[in-house]
């Protein structure tokens, strides 16, 4: 029998160790019905909602009070309207287990411990330590849990077996405020008699080198580990916590650093055995470390895992002796080397995204500027090394570092590598894929694939800009990509976790830090980090990201969680606009509209426009980016007005709407000339004017023409950088220039998306000329930002988008906009109510077909759509009247138009 599926707790498919005592539960109603009329939840702890007459598919837990360690399973059944109008009960869903972690500081008897380091080695060269405890059990426990976290990265082993399959634990958060605790079921790992628990601890994000600036010790100078094992058996309860009775010993990890790489000497491996206190000189007692202010909490996002393994597509031995392994795909993670070499032989692995002239891996394009020594560059890092001991079954897998790479240069290995000896491991947050796209143009399919890969490679713990040079949670990058990501993957929990850090990192002034997690300007390279924060389009992530996640999930709780932080950000922007003037304007008496111009402070601006000068942050400090910043001031205010309305804050909504209208008028007054043209003519500024609704209706046509002229003047090439690229094609298509939108989409000379495909990209480049015509690599080859254009493929080419005013895909528009010679397209999205899908194809018009449609055009479009329960779809086909349909499978036919006879146009971003 049909039953609800996809049960989620706090939006997570796995709910182990949650630290939320009233978690939100949600489900997808059974497919094949018209909609849900009632639900009933029962739980193993006795909670039973009884039948509730309601169409909602998400409710807060409301059963017996939950506390630390509470465990229950819940399941749900629904009543649904069938095709014939009947109200029938579904079967019960599969149960979803939920277990809470330790909710209170008083639950912890364990103490923080760490290695005694009389002299801390230099950053990037610090070893891994083992923290070990042996204990004896009279009987194997019936139920056992381990709760663990670290200031550093830890791996936990019990009796030589690795606990769980999570990677890079405790994960990346803003460690000054938040540390995640992992909860593990270890029942099966313990036995009667002697047991050994062992943690391997390295620097990680806590004190390793990190980001573009390679700052170290960002959160502290000493690593620490905290764990509590709780065992229950007939004999009672036993707790084994970290304390001074644990022993510290050296490990085979000679050094491990997230940027630098990991060096392992297996000759130093202790075999995972328990060291004894008397085994000098390397074994000594752990030191107890003080706790800090960070809250210990459970997961908000799915865990990080190895989610895919890749075999090499080629292995080439160069004259130098190096063996270059090509995985055929740029990924984030590490390799697993099954044959590390002969005893005593040190094998070095250099990871990179590109090959140099000599056919070997080059990392030159990934070297950051050294802000401490202008003109100099830092090392790119990404180098592992392993020395084999000769023991059988030695496998090298550097799980305390990560790299962005397609190629690995294996150096110092005498033996010829065989394909089975080396495996590429993709390491990322284990997000569920919920969206697809395909069309008849294979080049666009390939581009869609590389965009998806860039996201997979930049979704480890937090949304990152790139997986090699920085690995940093840049706010602007996620702001502009989250609409695309949320269509293809369930990023609800992932974004919530990151937003918690963004809020924690917000400055007292309301400024949103450029990067989260980050410890703030007092710690990191003050010059660089200090003045660049507060940039338009980056800080606005605190508004734009929650809004997009709300639209995707329908969960207004995400808006409520971030509302205060949004207001503080807006407060900063508003005060900047009201009280400061750019020097170029400051001398004149201010016109009334100038109080709404945000033209001071540092701004990255459009950032990375093709053909532009090399970015110079210090010069940008004094530039006037008012045209960009005021646009974002307007957009953020406009969105916040809508958010206030969703949250039921009517007075705030009205006030924000008025402010937003004033900013809009000010933008128009300042940045449109008498002919109604944008004064700082660039594609990006014109796109923003149209996308953010900055110009009056009577000026839209002129600004559109200006944009078209700029595109044509560039030889029908795009000229946008980071911020405007996602809006370029929707704006063209929505303002009567659909043909040009497709010309740009299918343009394949530089700069263009398809130039990347033609030059062999497997991920999206940071620069339009990431690999130039001569084959030379420039900057990162794995930045998803320019890939946000694939939303156009989903929303316009295939034609599935959410209706304005809808959240959680309750109301959708099916409105394909064929073009670019594409003859078929399909897309699907698993929304909160179920699977939405659209597929269309073009065929020649047969005589008399389709009935009722003028056969005046070049063919017939046949479209099928699946609409889930409780959802309505407005179908907008060329030349046909709009139709509204409900749940079920539908087929439509329409004559295609060669013109823009589409009833609904995207005029500005909803
Ligand atoms: C680069 C990052 C990122 C961008 C910032 C402004 O260093 O890679 O993508 O947001 O600069």
TrEMBL record:
Annotated region described as Disordered, given as residue ranges: 266-285
InterPro entries from the UniProt entry: 6-hairpin_glycosidase_sf, 6hp_glycosidase-like_sf, Alpha_rhamnosid, Bac_rhamnosid6H, Bac_rhamnosid_C, Bac_rhamnosid_N, Ig-like_fold, Rhamnosid_concanavalin
Q: What is its EC number?
A: 3.2.1.40
- Name all Alpha-L-rhamnosidase C-terminal domain ranges: 799-887
Residue ranges occupied by any Alpha-L-rhamnosidase six-hairpin glycosidase domain in the UniProt entry: 433-796
Instruction: Please verify whether the record's keywords include Phosphoprotein.
Output: no
Reaction(s) catalysed by this chain, per the record, are: Hydrolysis of terminal non-reducing alpha-L-rhamnose residues in alpha-L-rhamnosides
Domain Bacterial alpha-L-rhamnosidase N-terminal, by residue range, is 141-307
**Listed GO molecular functions?**
alpha-L-rhamnosidase activity
Name the UniProt key words of this record, in alphabetical order: Hydrolase
Q: Which Gene3D superfamilies match?
A: 1.50.10.10, Galactose-binding domain-like (2.60.120.260), Immunoglobulins (2.60.40.10), Maltose phosphorylase, domain 3 (2.60.420.10)
GO BP: any one term: carbohydrate metabolic process
Q: Which domain of life is it from?
A: Bacteria
Give the enzyme class: hydrolase
| Pfam family of the protein (one) | Bac_rhamnosid_N
Alpha-L-rhamnosidase concanavalin-like domain sequence ranges? 317-427
| Database matches in PANTHER family | ALPHA-RHAMNOSIDASE (EUROFUNG), ALPHA-RHAMNOSIDASE (EUROFUNG)-RELATED
* Name of the molecule in the record: alpha-L-rhamnosidase
Name the species this protein comes from: Pseudarthrobacter enclensis
